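Q: Could you fold this chain for me?
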Amino acid sequence: MIVLGLTGGIGMGKSTTADMFRARGVPVWDADSTVHRLYDGGVAVAPIEAAFPQAVHHGKVDRDALRQLATAPDNLKQIEAIVHPLVGADRAAFLRDSTAPVVILDIPLLFEVNLEDTVDKIIVVSVPADVQKQRVIERGIMTEAQFEAIRAKQLPDAEKRARADYVIETLTLKAAEEQVDRILAEVTHA
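A: Sure. Below is the predicted structure, expressed as structure tokens.
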């Protein structure tokens, strides 16, 4: 099995690109979806409630409350110590149970959490910074300041691109799809 790591900063088009791989029959494990599932009545609820009872309501982790708590460095370390192993176990189960010749691990912070050695090849999804910002702001779910704060915590796009085996530019869907097809052809015929 060939394990491809898919990563990219906020607003780069990573989710759309992951959907392109799915449409071509490639199983995709999504780190963000896994965290949401773990928080939404999943196995992360009990340990988070034990550590931060104010962050759990009605059997679910309140992401806004947890985000507020995570602004304190010690709290962030404690949250990560709870959540990262659970996410890792879920990822390992996905890989163990998959019989596909190629799979995608969709991990937004692949480099930031040092998971590049867990994949065979790395795909970085990218657009110019002005397009990235426009996409995020147009979603209407965060302010420009919130976007800049998130982007500041992520590895710069240029560094991600330099460390990638493949870069998918997502300025147009057609171009992104062509790049997805090219990557799949290359890794399945290698």
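A (continued): The chain is about 55% helix and 15% strand.
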